[in-house]
Write a structure and sequence with these properties.
The protein contains eleven helices and eleven strands. The protein is of the alpha/beta class and 279 residues long. The protein is elongated, with a radius of gyration of 23 Å. The chain binds S-adenosylmethionine. The site of S-adenosylmethionine (SAM) has 19 residues, from strand 5.
């Protein structure tokens, strides 16, 4: 997979040389190219920003350097690129909230280009223009504001690259995680390692009992409980057709009942949950 990242702070992407992502690059599984946006300016000060039309605080990134930088990247496609070109990923607080599902979709692409905004972001015409030429996804890390897109690129790249074949040694570990489709998108169950007892806290006996069926069942129960209590939005999307009788019983205990498109919770259960989670 090729990743082109356009930024004014290339050093911010250095962590991609480390750990599994660094190893994936060394092994040729990933080709990360970082481009300096300022290389596409033509004035003495290498200006990439200007005040916004209409007034307001801060500065915006001008469209011309972006146009030149992105055109140069598009003119140099990797072998085997999709005829539709790369997906241009634009980190932004106004984008779709990044998710494991989005990571899986992006991991299926041979070529991603990232546009890291700074200041108050990038002139809106850049997304508008490239949206007519290639696929563009504005992606948010969450409902908060960062200073720039680089941290988002690090997070997105890590989530995407670890899904590529060969990047993670044990591929099974990818399916045994929170948000994995193989586990219906549920949060992961609590996990324990040695010692069996630590500071008066014992590992649940079932996990050391050697009964794999019982372990699987305990883990599924815990995943359902955790998801229902911590992320009701995720539980609400659980497909009832993926649930067995025991799943339904665990959820019913917590006030959740299957509906036409997912699960719904009785208002009383939400009130209980809020009570027990009050600071
Ligand atoms: N004025 C913008 C707004 O209110 O939507 C925020 C600009 S922010 C200070 C500068 C850059 O940081 C953005 O262009 C984007 O690249 C990045 N950024 C900030 N928050 C982000 C988030 N939640 N997710 C992804 N990228 C973000």
């Amino acid at each position: 997979m090729r990743l082109d990242v356009v930024t004014i702070f290339g050093e911010y992407l250095q962590p991609l040389q480390l750990s599994l992502i660094g190893k994936a690059q060394a092994e040729g599984l990933l080709d990360v190219r970082v481009h300096d946006l300022r290389e596409h300016t033509h004035d003495r000060h290498r200006t990439v920003d200007a005040p916004p039309y209409g007034g307001g605080a801060g500065l915006l990134m001008k469209p011309e350097p972006w146009g030149e930088a992105l055109d140069a990247i598009l003119a140099d496609p990797p072998e085997g690129a999709d005829p539709r070109g790369p997906v241009l990923v634009v980190p932004s607080p106004v984008g779709e909230v990044f998710s494991q599902r989005a990571a899986v979709e992006l991991a299926a692409e041979p070529w991603l280009v990232f546009a890291c905004g700074r200041y108050e972001g990038i002139d809106a015409r850049v997304v508008e223009h490239y949206g007519t030429r290639i696929r563009v996804r504005e992606v948010s890390l969450g409902d908060y504001v960062l200073n720039g897109g680089e941290v988002a690129v690090l997070a997105i790249t890590e989530a995407v690259a670890r899904l590529l074949p060969g990047v993670i040694g044990n591929a099974a570990s990818l399916t045994e995680e929170s948000h994995a489709p193989e586990h219906d998108g549920l949060l992961e169950h609590p996990a324990y390692t040695k010692p069996a007892s630590w500071r008066g806290l014992d590992v649940p006996a079932v996990l050391a009992g050697g009964n794999h069926g019982a372990v699987d069942r305990w883990r599924r129960d815990q995943a359902l409980r955790r998801t229902a209590t911590r992320r009701p939005d995720v539980l609400a999307r659980l497909d009832p057709a993926r649930c067995d009788r025991r799943d339904l019983a665990v959820l019913a205990e917590l006030g959740w009942t299957p509906g036409e498109h997912g699960f719904q919770v009785e208002p009383a259960a939400v009130a209980d949950w809020a009570d027990t989670n009050e600071p």
